[in-house]
Design brief:
It is a single chain. This protein has 399 residues and is of the alpha/beta class. The protein is 40% helix and 16% strand. Strand 10 and strand 11 form a beta hairpin. Helix 1 crosses helix 4 and helix 5 crosses helix 6.
Length: 399
C-alpha cells in the first residue's frame, strides 16, 4: 500500500467534514483545511485529491496570497460539479432552482399553483423539476423542499398546514418522494428527497452562508404572509426537537389584550409581529394587500408619523417575543428575516432595547440582532437540506 493510499484511508472519516468546510468557505486553502481537521498535510492532500476526483472541488496549485513558507493550494467547489434540486412551496406557488456547492443557487424558476390538493401540487412541482434537471448537463445528486408548515420527523408529515389548505398530517415527504420518482428524477443510491420547515431551512442557510456564519447558537426569527416562525442552529446543526417541531414560537403571548389569534387566544406573536399586524397598527384591515406593508415601511423611513408609530408598535411586540426566546435559549446571535429586518431598520434602537430590557440577562450580555443576508434564504436552505447526504458521505456521488 502506498503512502497516499494509507493517508486516504486515514482521511476517509473526515471526507465529509473536509467537504463541509470547503462548502461553507471555512477552508479556502489546503493549509487552513489541515489545521481545521487536525491531520497531516499528506492526509489532506489525499482527501482533496479524492474530492477533486469526485468532481466536488477544485485544487489550484498556484500560491494563495503572499504568505511565507510553502505556498498552499487554493480550494474551491467545482463549478461544473454536481447540483441539487432546491424547491420552495409557497401558499400560492412554488420556486425551483438547481444549486451547486458553496451556496451557489442557479436562476430561480417561480411558478403559480392552481388548487390545493397535496398530491396534485407536488406532482406539478416534480414534473417541472424533472424538466429543469433534464435541461442541465450537470448531474443532480439530491432534492430538498422547503415547506411553509412544520414537518414531523422521521415520518415527514405536514402539521398545521392551514395556510396551504392541506389536511393536518399530510404525508408531504412520502408524496414528494413518490412524485419525483414518477417524474423520472433519479438520485444516487441511498439519497432520499428531503423536506423540512422553511424557517428551519432558512436558519441553516443563513448559518452556513449568511448573517449567522460563525455563530455557535443562532436564533432565526422570520415571518411570511402570516404568522411568525423561529429556528435554532446549535454548533452547525438544526435543533428540531424530538419530533421536528421545536421553535414554533408563534404562540408566545406578547400582548394579553392584543389581536385575536386563530388559536383562540389574544396577543400571540403570530398575530402581533407579522405583516398583518403592521397593517392593523396603521389602521388598515389585516387582509389588505401586502403591497400596503411595503408602503407603510417606506413611509416610516421618510418621516410619516403614523407609519413610524405603526412600525414601533409591531417592533415592541417582536422584541418581547424575541426576549422570551432569548431567556430560554441564550443564543449568541439573532438573525431576522426580511420583514423583521425592515422593522429593525425602522426601529434600530427601540427593537434591540426592547429585547435587552425584557430579557433576563439582557443588561449583561445583549444579544446582537442582524438582518438576514441571503436574498432567498428558504430556497438556499432547501439546497442545504439536499446537500446533507453528500456532505455526510461525499462518496455517494461516485455511484
Amino acid at each position: 500500500m502506498t503512502q497516499t493510499q494509507t493517508s486516504l484511508e486515514r482521511g476517509r472519516a473526515v471526507l465529509g467534514p473536509a467537504l463541509t468546510l470547503i462548502h461553507t468557505g471555512g477552508a479556502p486553502t489546503r493549509s487552513v483545511l489541515t489545521g481545521a481537521l487536525g491531520v497531516t498535510r499528506t492526509t489532506v492532500g489525499a482527501i482533496t485529491a479524492e474530492l477533486e476526483a469526485l468532481r466536488l472541488i477544485t485544487v489550484d496549485a498556484r500560491p494563495a496570497g503572499g504568505a511565507r513558507g510553502r505556498p498552499s493550494h487554493r480550494l474551491d467547489v467545482d463549478p461544473q460539479g454536481p447540483v441539487v434540486l432546491a424547491a420552495q412551496l409557497h401558499t400560492d406557488g412554488f420556486t425551483l432552482a438547481l444549486a451547486g456547492l458553496g451556496g451557489r443557487i442557479g436562476r430561480p424558476l417561480d411558478l403559480p399553483l392552481r388548487g390545493n390538493d397535496p398530491r396534485e401540487t407536488l406532482r406539478t412541482m416534480a414534473e417541472e423539476a424533472a424538466r429543469l434537471i433534464a435541461a442541465n448537463p450537470r448531474r443532480c445528486v439530491g432534492a430538498g423542499l422547503a415547506a411553509p408548515t412544520p414537518v414531523t420527523e422521521p415520518d415527514r408529515r405536514a402539521v398545521i398546514s392551514a395556510c396551504l389548505g392541506w389536511p393536518t398530517g399530510t404525508p408531504i415527504g412520502a408524496l414528494w418522494e413518490e412524485e419525483l420518482r414518477a417524474a423520472g428524477v433519479e438520485l444516487p443510491p441511498g439519497v432520499v428527497p428531503a423536506v423540512a420547515n422553511d424557517a428551519n431551512l432558512a436558519a441553516l442557510a443563513e448559518h452556513r452562508h449568511g448573517a449567522g456564519r460563525d455563530a455557535r447558537h443562532l436564533l432565526y426569527v422570520t415571518s411570511g404572509h402570516q404568522g411568525v416562525g423561529g429556528a435554532l442552529v446549535v454548533d452547525g446543526r438544526l435543533h428540531t426537537g424530538s419530533a421536528g417541531l421545536a421553535l414554533e414560537i408563534g404562540q408566545l403571548t406578547v400582548d394579553p389584550d392584543g389581536l385575536r389569534c386563530r388559536c383562540g387566544r389574544r396577543g400571540c406573536l403570530d398575530v402581533e409581529a407579522g405583516p398583518p399586524a403592521l397593517l392593523a397598527a396603521y389602521g388598515l384591515p389585516a387582509d389588505a394587500p401586502l403591497t400596503e406593508v411595503d408602503a407603510i415601511l417606506a413611509a416610516s423611513r421618510t418621516g410619516d408619523r403614523a407609519a413610524h408609530e405603526a412600525v414601533e408598535h409591531v417592533a415592541v411586540r417582536l422584541g418581547r417575543g424575541i426576549a422570551a426566546v432569548v431567556d430560554v435559549l441564550n443564543p449568541d446571535r439573532v438573525v431576522l428575516g426580511a420583514f423583521h429586518s425592515a422593522l429593525l431598520a425602522g426601529a434600530p434602537e427601540l427593537l434591540p432595547e426592547t429585547v435587552a430590557s425584557r430579557a433576563h440577562w439582557g443588561a449583561y450580555g445583549p444579544v446582537p440582532l442582524r438582518p438576514a443576508e441571503l436574498p432567498r434564504p428558504e430556497l438556499a436552505g432547501a439546497a442545504e437540506l439536499a446537500w446533507e447526504p453528500v456532505l455526510a458521505d461525499p462518496q455517494l456521488v461516485a455511484g
